[in-house]
Recover the amino acids of this structure.
């Protein structure tokens, strides 16, 4: 059996120069949020480590996460899928199809037991019948693949929280994949879809350091999900100043005011859009004038409507205008008080009269 | 003779170590009872002021109903100031509650409340009937009746805890690694994600407002029915009661002198 090549060696095979290789490592270090001085660690890792086998499963998804992934610009997606990882199974990108591919999946699970990374997009239906791939229950395939993986990367909000398939009324009883993984570490990379560079950055971290990145309480990598959009937003100065867009065609919208009053979910959304931005750092929704819809948060689909600020009734999937409901409750209380007050006075007068007669 | 101040006989006295109130004789029929000691009154008005400040600023934070005067450039700091006042009031609100919690144990018998006794729930039931104009055996209470106590537990107790937990969580969201941030990291386990936590905070805020309406009404009503100066009591501390109403403390000596008998 031929010796496996290191990432650097396979990059050279691709005709990449040492200079470009170093550039790639520097970009990677920056994406991962590492200090410039740590670039050396990345270079060393890429020179000595072998390509990591990756299995990519699609469950109840829309392929949006795959679409985002292939648009990674730094590192370029080519260098990720040809140099850093060895994508052993993917429904979207593989040239081959049918029995060949499906049987390879089983081979990889056995051959690279405990070494491969399992990337998953999409949620799992409770009833396996809702999702059969290649004639087999995708739920079972996932459980088997997850058991034998080194780590599971949960790409997107569907895999991480249930996402759109789990939105009310959740006909397939969709669940996040975390509910089905027992002993393998899971890294949540939510977003609908997640930012491409965040997706590749997580893989790069695992290769560089040989371990999963530091996670927050919810299980997301701190490097990318530590801040809310609101904390890093380019419109934040307008929020603090008290200047708000009232409707999408007003003067404030032209001036670039804060989108809070047109339903921006930035204050409740953890993601790096405001720092990393999209499409190679070009822009992100808020910069382009659209409020954040909170796509990386659990239940984002049920926290709507997107362009209004609402509060959720705890324990339900219903959102309400809290001030309208609050004023109504207050009105009902006041009415109750008025009636009770009138009754109190009437009863006292009545009692006094009776006492007077006795 | 059974001690008239035995714990189980009144739903007003909650714990063993609390002391009876100061009593002044007005005439042979009436006495003035020092019900709300100074710390309770200060707590009450600081609390009320903080809650109104928090509600007004909070509603603005949730729905900024007026804009900065200076249009075009972000040179004003309206939302910044409103949030600042909200947080400042929140710190006062929290500290004030902690002082009141301390006074529950240090104050007179009307400063505490104990839900874990049968008599408490029996008297609560009688109070409910009283408020529903039904026949009842509700005794007259010099302090708060058990239903009032219950409303304070639910709104001022549980309600404040919810506001504080969710509020400080929101407050520390930008600095999860700070000391305060670490203290409140676990809040999502109970209240859900950021969106849910904000929702809780906003909805319970309105529960406070509903409480205030009912609370002021019931205070006025009590004043009207028992003519004991309930309304002025929260300013002066004193209620004027008939001598019979303090049956349970009647053989206590008059002001100043202590009677060890009541420190069981
Ligand atoms: C935000 C507003 C308010 C809150 C949260 C509030 C809360 C409370 C609490 C917790 C107590 C129990 C005192 C203790 O034992 O520490 C109390 C008692 C009292 N409050 Fe308020 N209060 C508010 C506003 C008011 C106002 C505006 C009035 C009258 C104009 C008032 C009149 C009274 C009276 C008369 C009592 C004694 C009632 C009794 O016998 O149980 N309160 N209040
Ligand atoms: C009775 C007490 C309180 C009331 C009535 C109150 C009310 C409110 C309301 C209505 C909001 C708007 C929620 C929304 O965005 O939909 C809010 C926001 C907030 N409150 Fe409170 N609050 C109280 C106590 C506290 C406490 C104790 C803290 C702790 C520091 C706190 C911190 C906050 C924070 C951080 C926000 C969000 C501000 C922002 O995102 O800009 N609140 N409050
Ligand atoms: S646009 Fe959204 S994220 Fe940005 S400051 Fe306004 S509310 Fe916050
Ligand atoms: S700005 Fe908000 S809705 Fe848009 S991609 Fe980022 S997290 Fe998702």
């Amino acid at each position: 059996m031929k010796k496996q090549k290191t990432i650097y060696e396979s990059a050279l095979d691709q005709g990449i120069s040492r200079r470009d290789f170093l550039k790639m490592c520097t970009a990677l270090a920056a994406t991962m949020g590492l200090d410039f001085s740590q670039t050396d660690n990345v270079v060393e890792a890429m020179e000595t480590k072998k390509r990591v086998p990756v299995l990519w499963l699609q469950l109840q998804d829309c392929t949006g996460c795959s679409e985002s992934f292939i648009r990674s610009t730094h590192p370029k997606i080519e260098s990720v899928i040809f140099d850093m990882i060895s994508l052993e199974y993917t429904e979207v990108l593989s040239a081959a199809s049918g029995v060949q591919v499906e049987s390879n999946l089983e081979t990889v699970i056995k051959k690279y037991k405990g070494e491969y990374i399992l990337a998953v997009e999409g949620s799992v239906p409770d009833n396996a019948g809702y999702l059969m791939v290649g004639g087999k229950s995708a739920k079972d395939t996932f459980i088997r693949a997850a058991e034998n993986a080194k780590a599971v990367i949960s790409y997107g909000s569907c895999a991480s929280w249930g996402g759109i398939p789990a939105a009310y009324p959740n006909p397939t009883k969709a669940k996040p994949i975390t509910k089905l993984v027992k002993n393998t570490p899971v890294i949540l990379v939510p977003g609908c879809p997640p930012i491409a560079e965040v997706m590749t950055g997580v893989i790069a971290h695992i290769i560089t350091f040989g371990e999963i990145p530091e996670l927050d309480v919810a299980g997301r990598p701190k490097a990318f999900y530590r801040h809310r959009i609101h904390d890093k937003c380019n419109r934040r100065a307008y929020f603090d100043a008290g200047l708000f867009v009232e409707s999408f065609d007003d003067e404030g919208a032209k001036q670039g005011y804060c989108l809070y009053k047109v339903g921006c979910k930035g204050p409740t959304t953890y993601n790096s859009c405001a720092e990393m931005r999209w499409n190679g750092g070009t822009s992100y929704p808020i910069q382009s004038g659209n409020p954040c819809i909170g796509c990386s948060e659990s239940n984002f689909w049920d926290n709507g409507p997107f362009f209004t600020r609402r509060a959720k009734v705890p324990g339900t999937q219903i959102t309400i205008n809290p001030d309208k409901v609050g004023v109504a409750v207050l009105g009902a209380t006041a009415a109750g008080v008025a009636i009770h007050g009138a009754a109190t006075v009437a009863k006292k007068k009545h009692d006094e009269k009776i006492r007077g007669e006795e | 003779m059974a001690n008239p101040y035995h714990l189980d006989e009144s739903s007003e006295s909650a714990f063993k170590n609390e002391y009876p109130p100061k009593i002044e004789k007005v005439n042979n029929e009436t006495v003035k009872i020092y019900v709300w000691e100074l710390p309770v009154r200060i707590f009450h008005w600081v609390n009320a002021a903080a809650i109104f400040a928090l509600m007004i600023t909070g509603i603005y934070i949730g729905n900024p109903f007026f804009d900065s005067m200076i249009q075009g450039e972000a040179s004003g700091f309206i939302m910044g100031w409103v949030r600042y006042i909200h947080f400042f009031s929140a710190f006062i609100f929290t500290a004030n509650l902690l002082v009141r919690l301390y006074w529950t144990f240090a104050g007179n018998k009307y400063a505490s409340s104990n839900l874990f006794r049968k008599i408490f729930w029996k008297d609560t039931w009688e109070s409910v009937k009283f408020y529903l104009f039904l026949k009842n055996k509700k005794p007259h209470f010099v302090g708060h009746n058990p239903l009032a106590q219950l409303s304070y537990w639910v709104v001022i107790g549980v309600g404040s805890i919810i506001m504080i937990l969710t509020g400080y969580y929101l407050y520390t969201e930008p600095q999860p690694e700070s000391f305060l941030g670490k203290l409140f990291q676990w809040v999502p386990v109970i209240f859900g994600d950021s969106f849910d936590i904000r929702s809780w905070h906003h909805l319970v805020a309105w529960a406070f407002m509903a409480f205030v309406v009912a609370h002021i009404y019931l205070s006025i009503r009590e004043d009207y029915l028992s003519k004991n100066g309930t309304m002025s009591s929260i300013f002066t501390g004193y209620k004027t009661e008939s001598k019979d109403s303090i049956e349970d403390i009647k053989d206590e000596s008059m002001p100043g002198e202590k009677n060890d008998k009541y420190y069981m």
Summary: The beta strands of chain B are 23-25, 30-34, 238-242. Chain B touches chain A through 48 residues (CB under 8 Å). Residues B 40, 43-44, 47-48, 51, 100, 144, 148, 152, 156, 212, 215-216, 219, 230-231, 233-234 surround protoporphyrin IX containing FE (ligand 1) (CB under 6 Å). Residues 128 and 147 of chain B are 7 Å apart (CA to CA).
